[in-house]
């Protein structure tokens, strides 16, 4: 069956920076089906060749030394453009006709990729449905990939799910979170479920707490217009950090397939202990970097948080009493995404020189990016120094072990969407459960102004009060920039 990938938002930033370079790389690796066609849809009046020419330049820029003119020329033969407006039903009817001709009347498998502004997601889905392009009754193979953000709160996410479900069945819907396409996030499944040594200690008996940090060195740059209405919770925590939390905390699924995996993931979110406004004032830190208010497009009195730390509890047998600390911010010390599994101290210390604080206890660090790898920290005896100990580590690094470059997350996710594997995409209940955790936090911050919005200097690890907040809980953030090999 031939494949067609229709990208709505063809002239946009995501398409040129990520989607087309990812599809090009799939072609280069001979993973893009030979019979796949990529069709761009947006209002700009490109001809096929004009769009291809624009994409060639941007792909060359973003694919770097992976760009091979001869591969591009072959790839370009699979690329087409059809101008249209999401607001215009006639343009969808015309699109359907164009696709039919392109597919030579064959029953092609189609992926509709919504890479337009989020306000168009619902409308685009409706237009596809009304033009008879959704095929929710079966008999043809149609999928829709929906970019983030999926809603701006629980109510809007539910409304969007309702709109989507009016035209597509859930199994046709692929809500993308590109963090799930990152190699190291997939490796977390492997680490946990393809090794026998971790599972027995992956619980409250051995683990003191878990830290999930997504630090970004960049500030909001030119995206302030969007960012100010989102803030760090909507932009990062509701999706990427909660995805990392789910994969870290989930039970082993019965099978590695979309629904068993997502069933276990969603159970984690449903077990997250609900917070009262008093809990939120105590268990969250929010801050804005100094200089944010000067960014173009930010209102002078904006209270948008560019940094947040949130302590969550998971009420189930595995995790009762183990706090999960989620932290993310812009304008931080360095770019690093890491999951720190902080183990407990030994119950009885034989050596007076031995570890005294939780900082010295065993720690497993999953470096999601950019120094993709895993480190295990443990105590060793310093030679010829009595029983003096020092923390050392076992270090697995992707680059050193496997060489080559780590593929962009979109490569894996686009291929999965083409092949019909939804394991690494969010399901409707997952997205809603994530908003169910974030809404009370955002609402409490807005309604009570508690905790106070703090300020932090760019280039550090967030506000000093966040370090103190952790110290008051007898814990310490693992603030380390990864070593790039
Ligand atoms: N850029 C990124 O790095 C990331 C983006 N995303 C998400 O991806 C989506 C796209 O982002 P991005 O590419 O940055 O956005 P852009 O603003 O760059 O692109 C928007 C696209 O939508 C098209 N468009 C706008 N109005 C219409 C319309 N009425 N009918 C048809 N097409 C229309 C525009 O084309 P034209 O004007 O020609 O019609 C353009 O191609 C957003 O939802 C964003 O949240 C998610 C993660 C990262
Ligand atoms: O979705 C988003 O993610 C990026 C960070 O992605 P990464 O792959 O570079 O870690 C973030 O900068 C952006 O604000 C957000 O919308």
Give me a quick take on this structure:
By secondary structure, the chain is an alpha/beta fold.
As for the number of domains, it is 2
Structural class estimated from helices and strands:
alpha/beta
Helical residues, percent: 25-40%
State the assembly state of the protein chains: single chain
CATH architecture of the largest domain: 2-Layer Sandwich
Count of separate DSSP helical elements = 14
The major pleated sheet works out as: 9 strands, mixed
Mean pLDDT figure: 96
Secondary structure layout:
Elements: E1 3-8, H1 13-28, E2 36-42, H2 48-63, H3 69-76, E3 79-83, H4 89-102, E4 109-114, H5 121-130, E5 141-146, H6 154-165, E6 173-175, H7 183-193, E7 207-215, H8 224-249, H9 258-271, H10 277-283, E8 284-289, E9 307-312, E10 324-329, E11 336-343, E12 363-369, E13 373-381, E14 389-397, H11 398-402, H12 409-419, H13 428-448, E15 453-456, H14 464-472
Parallel strand pairs: 1-2, 1-4, 2-3, 4-5, 5-6, 7-10, 8-15
Antiparallel strand pairs: 7-11, 8-9, 9-10, 11-12, 12-13, 13-14
Helix pairs in contact: 1-2, 1-12, 6-13, 8-9, 8-13, 9-13
The structure holds NADPH dihydro-nicotinamide-adenine-dinucleotide phosphate and the ligand O=C1O[C@H](COP(=O)(O)O)[C@@H](O)[C@H](O)[C@H]1O.
């Amino acid at each position: 069956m031939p494949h067609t990938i229709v990208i709505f938002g063809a002239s946009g930033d995501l398409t040129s920076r990520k989607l087309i370079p990812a599809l090009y790389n799939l072609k280069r690796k001979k993973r893009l089906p030979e019979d796949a066609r990529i069709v761009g849809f947006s209002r700009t009046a490109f001809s096929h060749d004009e769009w291809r020419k624009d994409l060639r330049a941007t792909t060359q820029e973003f694919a770097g030394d992976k760009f091979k003119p001869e591969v591009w020329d072959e790839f370009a033969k699979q690329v087409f453009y059809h101008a249209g407006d999401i607001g215009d039903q006639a343009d969808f009817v015309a699109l359907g006709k164009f696709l039919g001709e392109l597919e030579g009347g064959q029953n092609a498998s189609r992926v509709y990729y919504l890479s337009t502004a989020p306000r168009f997601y619902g409308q685009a889905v409706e237009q596809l449905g009304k033009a008879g392009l959704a095929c929710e009754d079966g008999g043809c193979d149609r999928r829709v990939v929906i970019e983030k953000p999926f809603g701006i709160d629980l109510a809007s996410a539910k409304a969007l799910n309702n709109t989507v479900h009016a035209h597509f069945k859930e199994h046709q819907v692929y809500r993308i979170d590109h963090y799930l396409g990152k190699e190291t996030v997939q490796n977390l499944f492997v680490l946990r479920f393809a090794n026998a040594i971790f599972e027995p200690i992956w619980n409250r008996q051995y683990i003191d707490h878990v830290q999930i940090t997504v630090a970004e060195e960049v500030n909001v740059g030119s995206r302030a217009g969007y960012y100010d209405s989102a803030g760090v919770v909507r932009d990062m925590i509701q999706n990427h950090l909660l995805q990392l939390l789910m994969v870290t905390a989930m039970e082993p699924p019965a099978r590695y397939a979309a629904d068993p995996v997502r069933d276990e993931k969603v159970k984690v979110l449903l077990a997250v202990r609900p917070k009262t406004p008093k809990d939120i004032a105590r268990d969250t830190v929010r801050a804005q970097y100094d200089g944010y208010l000067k960014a173009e497009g930010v209102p002078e009195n904006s209270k948008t948080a560019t940094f947040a730390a949130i302590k969550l509890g998971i009420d189930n047998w595995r995790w009762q009493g183990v706090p999960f600390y989620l932290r993310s911010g812009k304008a931080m010390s360095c770019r690093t995404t890491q999951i720190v599994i902080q183990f407990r101290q030994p119950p009885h210390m034989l050596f007076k020189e031995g570890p005294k604080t939780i900082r010295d206890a065993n720690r497993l660090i999953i470096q999601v990016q950019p120094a993709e790898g895993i480190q295990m920290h443990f105590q060793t005896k310093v030679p010829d120094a009595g029983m003096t100990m020092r923390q050392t580590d076992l270090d697995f690094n992707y680059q050193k072990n496997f060489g080559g470059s780590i593929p962009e997350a979109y490569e894996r996710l686009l291929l999965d969407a083409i092949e019909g594997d939804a394991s690494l995409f969010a399901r409707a209940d997952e997205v809603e459960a994530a908003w169910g955790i974030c809404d009370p936090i955002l609402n409490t911050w807005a309604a009570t102004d508690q905790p106070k919005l703090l300020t932090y200097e760019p280039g550090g690890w967030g506000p000093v009060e966040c370090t103190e907040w952790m110290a008051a809980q007898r814990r310490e953030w693992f603030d380390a920039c990864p070593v790039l090999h």
